[in-house]
Amino acid sequence: MIDVADTVLSILQLGDFFQDITIRLIGLDPRAKASQNRVRIGWPAKGAPAWKRDADVGFLLIDYSDDQYTRQMDVTYNESNMDNANRTVSYTRVLRVNWIFYGPNSFGDADMVRAGLFLPQTTMDLAAVNMALITDVAMPIRTPELFAGQWWDRSSFQARFNEKVTRQSEVPYLESANVQIVKE
Predict the structure, then answer these.
(1) In angstroms, what is the C-alpha Rg of the chain?
(2) How far apart are alpha carbons 91 and 27 in whole angstroms?
């Protein structure tokens, strides 16, 4: 099978996409290096936490969620040329995005991002990458965290998204078949 044109985001592309949206929703410039340190896709390599107790820092954890919609596959074939057909497989992936914010503004940041997911611009940004918010988004939860004998402000919430995935490939037409009839 030869890959023709897929519409699917890798986990790295999803991280970049949600980092950009999160930075914009808390009112920062997504192109600024400081903003990317403010909202991080990964976790500190040297242990947690790896920032000052009074610093505002957000983390994204993105994974896939099993759902009844993920099991439905639509497969179609269209003529590509004389020798091949174009095979298209479409399905829905359900993504779960967790936002974890630390710092004195952690709850406010979480609440701004949650509310911002419902903005028309965010809806258009999601649609541009074949995604849609599943609108049952719970309020952020404030859960201070004890680390090294100190309490760190922490707030988190999660949202789920449907992503339409399309995978296309060319498959050759069957040109001949060897048929044998065997009598018993």
Answers:
(1) 23
(2) 34
Task: Say if CB 19 and CB 39 are below 8 A apart.
Answer: yes
Alpha helix stretches (DSSP H) within the chain: 11-25, 33-38, 106-116, 120-128
Beta strands 145-147; 150-152: pairing state: antiparallel
Q: How far is CA 56 from the centre of its chain?
A: 23
Q: Are 137 and 114 in contact (CB under 8 A)?
A: yes
pTM for the predicted model, two decimal places:
0.82
- If you ran DSSP here, which 8-state letter would residue 7 be given? B
Tokens linked to 166? 């399309």
Give the list of residues 6+ apart from residue 2 with CB closer than 8 angstroms, or none: 169, 170
For the stretch 94-116, pLDDT in tens is 999 999 999 999 999 999 999 99
State the Cα–Cα distance between residues 108 and 119, nearest whole angstrom.
17
Cβ–Cβ < 8 Å for 46, 63: no
Query: Could you tell me if 160 and 177 are in contact, meaning their C-beta atoms sit under 8 angstroms apart?
Result: no
The rounded distance, in Å, linking the Cα atoms of 79 and 20 is 39
- β-strand partners of 158: 98
